[in-house]
Amino acid sequence: MATPASPFSVGVPGQPWGEAERTQWRALQRRQRSYAADVLEAVGRLHAHWDAQAYGELDYDPDFYPLVALHSADWDHTRPVALVTGGVHGYETSGVHGALKFAAEHGSAYEGRINLLVVPCVNPWGYEHIQRWNPAAVDPNRSFREHGQALEAIALMRLLAPLQGRFLVHVDLHETTDTDESEFRPALAARDGKPFEPGGIPDGFYLVGDADDPQPEFQQAIIAAVEQVTHIAPADADGKMIGSPVVAHGVINYPVKALGLCASATGARYVTTTEVYPDSPSATPEQCNAAQVAAVRAAIDYALAHP
């Protein structure tokens, strides 16, 4: 869903944005859904198998967002930890709802086996405004690094810090949408004062592994599970997806730590970033949510079988 004005209506082409341009961009954004109703209320219904934890708050006057995480109710400090994150890019709907669906329907299946930590919506302002960035026009998914600027990433890293060294698996749930090409990539180019270079959107589900530790068998186990739910994106004519070489069926790799991606936040042995395509004529919102759940379950199952 596009904002009311073209991203190129903000700023001067070829010149990076300053604070005035960021303020102008922020004024164009409109709240389109409710974090409290969609996320906080859902978290409140999950007390049977989960402990909810407030891990911070975001005060974007006049908007205020408590940040919440779900912990396994039977948490045991002798067990490894599986992390599921959604909504780092708030507009990517199935990441948020897929994380909540996993927690609601499958959390109890892992009792006594692994500690689960689910953070369903890292970027609540982005969720409400259907935006990739936070209100400072900063991408949280490039901010998981020392001196990162996104408050959303800083809060999550503080939550994870006491658990470092204990993470076995981390699944970060994302989408690639048509608005990536029509809105968010043009906005990024405008913000950074660079020319917009058109690209393509893969039609289907794919994964982004860690180029420094790709774990190909792990990635393929997830692809095999998701393929039972929805279709896997093919490579383009150049053997690539979103400009990166396809290294295996439905898989590309990024240097996640160098880019400051959420997938780098734990140092887990098994790490992946999911990408669902909700605008595909061959997929429904329910399938997209189910694909995210299938990916999480396959990731944790593989990690438990290969500790």
UniProtKB/TrEMBL annotation:
Q: Which residues form the Peptidase M14 domain?
A: 31-307
Q: Which GO terms describe its biological process?
A: proteolysis
**Listed GO molecular functions?**
hydrolase activity, acting on ester bonds; metallocarboxypeptidase activity; zinc ion binding
User: Known Pfam families for this protein?
Assistant: DUF2817 (PF10994)
Kindly give the InterPro entries that the UniProt entry links to this protein.
DUF2817, Peptidase_M14
Q: Which family does it belong to?
A: Belongs to the peptidase M14 family.
- Indicate what this protein is called per its UniProt record: Peptidase
